[in-house]
Every structure is written in C-alpha cells, then in structure tokens.
Amino acid sequence: MMDGQNLTQIEIDRRVFDLYDEYCHGGMDRRTFLSRAAAVTVGGLAMAQALLPRYVQAQTISFTDDRIKATYVTYPSPGGTSGMMRGYLVQPKGNGPFPVVLVIHENRGLNPYIEDVARRAATEGFLALAPDGLFPVGGYPGNDDDGRTLQAKLDQGKLRTDMVNSARFLKTHAMSTGKLGVTGFCWGGGTTNFLAATLGADMNAGVPFYGPAAETASVPNIKAPLLVQYAESDERINAMWPAYETALKANGVPYEMFIYPGTQHGFHNNSTPRYNEAQAKIAWDRTIAFFKKNLA
User: Fold this and answer.
1) pLDDT for 189-240, tens place per residue?
2) Residue 10 above 70 pLDDT?
3) Cα–Cα dist 60/239, whole Å
4) Rounded to an integer, what distance in angstroms lies between the CA atom of residue 30 and that of residue 43?
C-alpha cells in the first residue's frame, strides 16, 4: 500500500501531475481531482494526496528569526477590490533604508509558503511585502481550495490594481531606497510580468516564476530587466515564451531565461512533492543575485 505522506516526485505518475496542474488552476474541485487520479493508475489516490500542500514543511525561516521583523500592514488601494489592502511586511535587521521586493502569491491568496518566501527575501537584506489579494474578501481562508475559489470569483482587473497599489506602497515606504523588485509564482509570475509592463520605469527588476507572459502589446512599456524562470514540464506556460521573447528582443528589454531540468510547474514550492530542492535552490540563488545586482 502506498503511503501518500512519503511519496517522492519520481514515484508519482505523470498523469496525476497533469491532473494536479488542472486542479491547481481551477479546472476541477478537490473531490474530482482525487477520484480521477484514483481511476488513472494503481495507487493514484495516494499520489494525488501526496501532492496536496503541507505548509508545516514549507517554513524555512521562523517567524521569530532574529534577523527579521515581520508584521501585517494595511494600506489604501484605490480602484481595487475594496479600496484597502493588507500585506505581510518583513523588515531586515537595522533601520534601512532597504531595496524592496514585492512577493506575489499564486492563485489562492497569501498562504504560509509565500509568507516564508517573503521572510527568505528579508534575510537577504530586502524589505519584502507579500500582499494578500483575498484581504478585501476576508483574507486567505486557511486552505488552498477555498482560497482558489475566492480568488477566481474576484474582479481580476481590480485584483491586479490591488497588486499595482501594493507595489507603489512598498516602493514609497519610509524604509525603502526606492528600488523595487518584484517576484511571483504561477499567477504571481504572470502578475510580475503584468507589473513590469504597467509600472514601466518605476520597477527596477522582475523575476517571474512559471507565470503567463505579458500581453505582447504591453511589452514596449517594460523597462525593468527580467529573470524569467520556467519548469521543464510545463507545456501551457512554456508555450507562451517564444512570442514573449520575440517581443522582449524587439523592444530592447534586458532579460535572462532559464528552464530548470527535471522540474514541474510549482517546483519552487517546498510544501508538495512537485518541489525540486536542488533546482529551487539554484533558481532562488539566481533570484537573490539578480535583485542584488539590479536594486543596489
């Protein structure tokens, strides 16, 4: 009998990964995901259960780490979902000012993994803000299923406006040097690309992780150098790259792109077996080096 708690990536059938990707992006509910995984292969239910996030595993930097100070802050968001936003602000030790990094969540609100990423950025000397796009409707509800449902029901234009306002709040924060970097994952990766096109010269560096490309017509507005991070097995997202690269080149946008071998969509998220520890470390080290170079 398979133990879903202890399955590793190589033990999970590719078809179950594909179902999980569809589930993560709102293509089915949890019950359907589990039943279809059970039907597709022997042991499929255990494989599916292993892919569901376990956030206790995701904490790499403690809330009480003496290198950082973390608080929740609220700030105005005109034109957004409710006119107000809340985020998780993590300050490095010292009085600053600090270069700043906006950390944008996936399609399910500000979960514990994204909060941990913000703490990781702060330990590297950045003032980090992880906004919760679900704050205007009660905040991240404590589980990804309800979070995904809530986020899908939001006015997507207003949600993106909330992210624009979050970036501007952080850039102009009293402890900010005014140098803004943005990173995000999945939906947050796509929003990183969107912010690069929306903020223009107000954004100084962007690192989208496996996110949808910016609309081609908006690419001329991008002024920030980009470090684009893709998983090897992520057909839907990777198919957008050739056109995006053509537009970036045509408009003289500085960029680097890496595809990480042996990885699935979501490989940086260390709460599920899609996590690839070695490649996630390489990608994160590149992210920090890129921000240190461009936000100095």
Assistant:
1) 999 999 999 999 999 999 999 999 999 999 999 999 999 999 999 999 999 9
2) no
3) 32
4) 17
- Say which residue, 96 or 289, is predicted with more confidence: 289
Strand partners, 143: none
- CA atoms of 164 and 199, how far apart (whole Å): 8
Q: Enumerate residues 6+ apart whose C-beta is below 8 A from 202.
A: 167, 168, 171, 180
pLDDT at 33: 74
What average pLDDT score do residues 143-151 get? 89
Which band of pLDDT confidence, cut at 50, 70 and 90, is reported for residue 144? confident
Residue 44 has pLDDT above 80, yes or no: no
Q: Supply φ then ψ for residue 246, to 5 degrees.
A: -60, -45
**DSSP code string of the chain:** ---TTT--GGGS-HHHHHHHHHHHTTSS-HHHHHHHHHHHSTTHHHHHHHHS--GGGG--S-TT-TTEEEEEEEEE-TTSSSSEEEEEEEEESSS--EEEEEEE--TT-S-HHHHHHHHHHHHTT-EEEEE-TTGGGTS--SSHHHHHHHHHHS-HHHHHHHHHHHHHHHHT-TTEEEEEEEEEETHHHHHHHHHHHHHGGG--EEEEES-PPPPGGGGGG--S-EEEEEEEE-HHHHTTHHHHHHHHHHTT--EEEEEEEEEETTTT-TTSTT--HHHHHHHHHHHHHHHHHH--
Fold of 56-294: Rossmann fold (3.40.50)
Task: Name residue 264's beta-bridge partners.
Answer: 233
What residues does each domain of the chain span?
9-52, 56-294
- Label residue 232 exposed, middle or buried (CB < 10 Å: 0-12, 13-18, 19+): middle
